[in-house]
Amino acid sequence: MMDKIFFRVLNMSLVSGYVIALILLLRPLFGRISKRFSYALWGVALFRLLCPFSIGSLASLVPVQPNTVSTRMLYEQTPQIHSGIAPFDSAVNRFLPAGTPQYSANPLQIHAFIGEVLWSSGMVLLAGYGVVSLFVLMYKLRNAEAVPGMNRIYQLEGLETPFVLGIIRPKIYLPTALSGKEQEYVLLHETTHIKRLDHAARLAAYAALCIHWFNPLVWIAFWLSGKDMELSCDEKAVRSMTLEDRKGYSTALLKLSTEKRIKCPTPLAFGEGDVKGRIKSILSYRKPVIWVSVLALAATAVLCLGLAVNPENPLSDGEKYLEKLEDSFSIAPDGVVSLKVPRGMPVGSHLHIHVSGRFILEDGSGMSLHGFEDVEEWVPGKYYEDRIFDQSPYGWHIEFDAFLEDENGVQIAEKSTAYSAMPVPPETEQVDQMIFAAGKLYIATYEDVSKMVAEEAAVSEYDSPYIGEIVSSVGEHYAPMEELQSNFGCEGSEVVFNGSGVAVNIDGKWMRFEPVD
User: What residues contact residue 372 under an 8 Å CB cut-off, 6+ apart?
Assistant: First the structure.
């Protein structure tokens, strides 16, 4: 379960990273027209950071696939990401560790576990910091007094900057040093925050920061969105003011910044910052031409909608359904496989699932695995699990096959995935040439037995030593697991029995391989 949550967060952060990067490029342009447009763009970034689901659409402006990384990578011999951006995929895939660790744990599983611990620890620490700082601030505000005749507005002696605190019933806290007109300007600004629900948006932004703290773009977005929030709030507050009123509003801001202001390091309270930039923006504010505002509003709407939806999935309904099924499939270290049959099975279809494979025993031989053999009917929405092997210090290879048939028994969709956790034999410090044949793993002796093979062939006319030809291969640092598979290539080379081992025809010479004890 933790793997699925962690990988979902990684996928959300990758997509959100693209959205934030695009907003950073467009923000100056939209901000020149009106700060409310640049602030509105951060809303779609917040949606992407917090919402784990989105629909697919041809109108999507996001090139990144929503499932760039998947938990099935943890069990693949050659794990790969699929972001939809080929150069990015190629660059990352070169650094992903191969899936052949010792003790039936892929290196990627170990890396994922470390990442999960670091991610959850950072999230708890950052969230804890926000909660503790909130209580500290509330303790400092214990002596605040309500302003007579005003609802949920308080004053505190020594407070150097106004701010909003709370979510359901937010309160405004003011310094006592404000004059009547200055207080009027400040309250106009703070009540504008509350009317726009900026206090709730800021809490949501802090929650997103806690979840995606490892993404530097999220920190940039958190800071800039706060800045745009203040600028757009100022813009709305002074929109109908005269130049003299805007000067008075700016003077009130300047007065609040002349002394060291109170720090409000909590998501539930935000004060005023970047006074110099805000005053400059207020005094230079010009109401945009209507047609420019209309175009900017339309562009903002198109961008928000396009960035909120995923790229359209070209797969059929049946293929999409089987992808959801495959995503739910997991293999625990103790040999328990589990899955949850998704709801929404295409009407009139029938689901078939086969889980099979083998794992390596201590003597190097293979043992077949089969899962869910007792299941006769797969019920949508139901969770299934089955133990198919005991924990082993060696390795395993499991194939997950699922397909849908229509009412006439015609196959309409199919999904097949292989998962492996295959170790290199622990007694070998360096990986030698290996082959898996006749259900056992063999390792090269580098002995030329061409003469012996010829002699055995002459006397074994009716008892042929022939096994077959190499049909597939894995990387040179991996241990082969499938029948007639090698880690040195040579597909099509003949394999024969040779004494207690086997011999392989490599470049015209028969090389001997002995079983792994």
Answer: 337, 353, 355, 384, 386
Name the residue with tokens 């794990």.
79
According to DSSP H, which parts of 373-498 are helical? 450-459
SS3 461: coil
| Type and span of the H or E element at 95 | none
SS (H, E, C) 492-516: CCEEEEECCEEEEEECCEEEEEEEC
C-alpha span between 453 and 38 (Å, rounded) = 77
DSSP letters, 304-342, are HHHHHSEEPP-S-HHHHHHHHHHHH-EE-TTSEEEEEPP
Nearest by Cα to 250 from 147, 242, 163, 287:
242
* Cβ-Cβ contacts under 8 Å for 276 (sequence gap 6 or more): none
Q: Tens of pLDDT along 189-248?
A: 888 888 888 888 989 999 999 999 999 999 999 999 988 888 888 888 777 777 777 777
SS3 content of the chain, % helix, strand, coil (to 5): 40, 20, 35
Least Cα distance to 480 among 316, 323, 360 occurs for: 360
Cα dihedral value 302, 307, 310, 314, nearest 10: 50
Which backbone phi and psi does 25 adopt, to 5 degrees?
-75, -35
